[in-house]
Amino acid sequence: MLETVTLVLELAERPMRAREIHAAAEYLAGEPLLWNSVKSALAACAVGNEACFERVRRGYYRIKENRVR
Question: Residue 68 falls within a domain, yes or no?
């Protein structure tokens, strides 16, 4: 899940709404994905020193610049 969400945000190159990320992740995966799984991946990876996403504002995320891969 995390890899798919990361790929969506890398391809977008702009902040996206969580619902947009979910729809794009489903498209890339070629199958339905649980909304809660996408939401959890975004929330978990948007905090801490090793965060890979930034929460721009409520419900909007982008790839964190200078993130550790």
Answer: no
